[in-house]
């Protein structure tokens, strides 16, 4: 494949002016890979697994919660897309934060995201293992975790096109499943499905009305929906390894709006229209409940297959994203230098390091599920909001700089700048404040704040030491 280094060569990254890495990575991702990664990245396991709790809390108004959080995500993706199209980099928002705010910001945003992805790999491996153990009783969960971790670590150690192919087919299956679900649901809502009478507006207005639990329930649903939007950042990381990263990022960002509207808001609207929000089966699994309601045979098992695909896709994408983020940080002098070696266009040492951390987190879930593993989960509970905050601040600074110095790089532009950027920052702040209202999310916020402060302090110390070394070198020169 053109653009891919010979597999017998090795290279180490070096720092370039401006704070980005000189990439020794290959460019083996095709446009079809990026397009499907962008599509499938929207359909995360959180949509299938976590939406039931949001519906149980907010009732039919969960549609508003998903629409509001989806709007925030769209704005964040637009800002990220603007910067990534102007400066494609495997470190994505970490590189943009370093350029705009300073090395400490790139260090903090990058490493907190790395920890988030590695912990997510552990959670997804455990979820996939639970499904497999249910299908094959008597097989231990740890065995399935080991199988999945080995498989996706192995695939990520090979050329990046292997990651692209895996994600292409995983995403295709997820997209097909969600589109089929929405089509069947709409047919049922319209009363055109044999044996399933149209519910009309009964489920939207009955059982306590559209807001059965008031604004409090809506707030809980909003918090549940915000964290369901996982995986969207991967496409801007992957774009750096494509043949045309600017075009890839631009296309992915420009289609983000309809993807979020259709896949998330559309499917949730179908669920709360077809079946009562307070039905016990909704909490257990809203998508399976709908399929069972419209007469799909073995609905629960069908959804288990879809959820398994979503979990495996997320594992693969998160090992990839974590390894590239770690590589970018190392390349910019923000991590252990021994991890920076690249072989065959793949940063194999950061792949191993990321998978090893994820597997260690799995072991923690077996050894200390209620203490150490719970602390780890809490530390990354609000990490995505920290990342979104860095993206918004970085875009405010970067946009001004680009308009002055290189306006031709503004291939993707943030809408109504700077008003919507400030609105995005306000949205992130509002979600953080809402997290203070609930006991569980308040604990997550406290742990994430502790991790963020620790990383920021470490980043500032490193930045000052680097500045002192540079000044000393300048004096000696």
TrEMBL record:
Any one of the GO BP annotations: transmembrane transport
Q: Region (Disordered): which ranges? A: 1-24
Occurrences of domain Amino acid permease/ SLC12A (ranges): 33-436
InterPro entries referenced in this protein's UniProt entry, alphabetically: AA-permease/SLC12A_dom (IPR004841), Amino_acid_permease_CS (IPR004840)
Q: Cell inner membrane as a keyword?
A: no
Where would you say this protein principally sits, based on its record?
membrane
What's one GO-annotated cellular component? membrane
Report membrane topology: Multi-pass membrane protein
The biased composition feature labelled Polar residues covers: 1-12
Ligase as a keyword? Answer: no
| Pfam family of the protein (one) | AA_permease
Transmembrane region(s): 36-57, 63-80, 111-136, 142-160, 172-193, 218-240, 260-277, 297-315, 350-368, 374-393, 414-436, 442-461
Keywords in alphabetical order: Amino-acid transport, Membrane, Transmembrane, Transmembrane helix, Transport
Localization recorded for this chain is:
Membrane
The family classification in the record reads: Belongs to the amino acid-polyamine-organocation (APC) superfamily. Amino acid transporter (AAT) (TC 2.A.3.1) family.
Q: What is this protein called?
A: L-asparagine transporter
Give the species this sequence originates from. Answer: Streptomyces radiopugnans
């Amino acid at each position: 494949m053109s653009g891919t280094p010979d597999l017998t060569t090795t290279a180490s990254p070096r720092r370039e002016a401006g704070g980005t890495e000189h990439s020794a990575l290959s460019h083996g991702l095709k446009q079809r890979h990026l397009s499907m990664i962008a599509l499938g990245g929207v359909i995360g396991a959180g949509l299938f697994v976590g939406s039931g709790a949001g519906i149980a809390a907010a009732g039919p108004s969960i549609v508003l919660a998903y629409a509001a959080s989806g709007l925030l995500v769209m704005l964040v993706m637009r800002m990220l897309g603007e910067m990534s199209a102007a400066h494609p980099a495997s470190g994505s928002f970490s590189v943009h934060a370093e350029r705009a705010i300073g090395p400490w910001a790139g260090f903090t945003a990058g490493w907190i995201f790395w920890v988030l992805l590695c912990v997510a790999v552990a959670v997804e491996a455990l979820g996939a293992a639970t499904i497999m153990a249910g299908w094959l009783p008597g097989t231990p969960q740890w065995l399935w975790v080991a199988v999945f971790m080995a498989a996706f670590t192995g695939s990520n150690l090979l050329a990046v096109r292997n990651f692209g192919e895996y994600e292409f087919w995983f995403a295709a299956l997820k997209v097909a499943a969600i589109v089929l679900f929405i089509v069947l649901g709409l047919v049922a809502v319209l009363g055109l499905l044999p044996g399933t009478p149209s519910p009309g507006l009964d489920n939207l207005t009955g059982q306590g009305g559209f807001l059965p639990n008031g604004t409090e329930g809506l707030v809980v649903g909003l918090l549940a929906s915000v964290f369901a939007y996982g995986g969207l950042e991967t496409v801007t990381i992957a774009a750096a390894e494509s043949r045309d990263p600017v075009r890839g990022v631009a296309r992915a960002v420009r289609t983000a709006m309809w993807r979020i509207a259709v896949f998330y808001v559309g499917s949730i609207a179908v669920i709360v229209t077809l079946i009562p929000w307070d039905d016990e089966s909704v909490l257990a699994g809203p998508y399976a409940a709908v399929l069972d309601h419209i007469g799909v045979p073995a609905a629960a098992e069908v959804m288990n297959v879809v959820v398994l695909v979503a979990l495996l896709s997320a594992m693969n994408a998160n090992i990839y994203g974590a390894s590239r983020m770690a590589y970018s940080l190392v390349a910019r002098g923000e991590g252990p230098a021994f991890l920076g070696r690249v072989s065959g266009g793949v940063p194999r040492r950061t792949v191993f390091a990321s998978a090893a951390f994820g597997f260690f987190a799995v072991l923690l879930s077996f050894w200390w599920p209620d203490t150490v593993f719970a602390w780890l989960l809490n530390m990354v509970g609000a990490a995505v909001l920290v990342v979104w905050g860095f993206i918004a601040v970085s875009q405010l600074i970067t946009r001004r700089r680009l308009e002055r110095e290189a306006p031709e790089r503004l291939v993707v532009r943030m809408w109504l700048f700077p008003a919507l950027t400030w609105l995005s920052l306000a949205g992130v702040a509002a979600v953080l404040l809402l997290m203070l209202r609930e006991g569980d999310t308040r604990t997550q916020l406290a742990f994430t704040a502790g991790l963020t402060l620790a990383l920021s302090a470490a980043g500032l110390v490193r930045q000052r030491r680097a500045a002192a070394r540079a000044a000393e070198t300048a004096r000696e020169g």
